[in-house]
Amino acid sequence: MKNKILLSLSKEELIRLVEDYSKNWLAMDGVWFQSVERARGMDEAMRHDAEAWRKFTVIEARRIKAFLGLPERAGLDGLARALQFRFYANLNEADILVDEERKTLVYRTRECRVQRARERKGMPFHPCKPVGEIEYAGFARVIDERLSCECLSCFPDVVDPGCCCAWRFTLHDSPVPDRKVG
User: Fold this and answer.
1) Strand pairing partners for 149?
2) Nearest to 68 by CA among 83, 87, 81, 86
3) Which residues pair with 150 in a beta bridge?
């Protein structure tokens, strides 16, 4: 371990630190995005956001998968576990609903820190759906190549007013082709 001071922290202090690190990560994501948004507009910011998430979601999923010791084809149970270890899991309120019979998992974000921050600043909501399609599909595919992802509700196409966004993951019998979106 490079930072030996972490060894002296209590469990409660480490948990607080992880929460702060998560907030810092999200703040950095928002700061660069808003910088491009102000200078070049929403479309340009979204193009860069899509490229950043296309790469970051794979890195995050691989590290979580390794940390949890998940098998190559971790299925819905592995995805449910992995989703709870994402940076977002420390910041947003979410539900995970697994339907084993239908081989699906629905991930619903009830409260989104990004949208609430933009709302507080009087900014329009972030049009998350196109980037979310890249992010969630890419994350799931690393956890298990047989998983596909479908957006159920996400700004600007909100159809479920009870949440900020909702995504359905389906476990197929064979690998799902990588579908380039965004």
Assistant:
1) 169
2) 81
3) 168
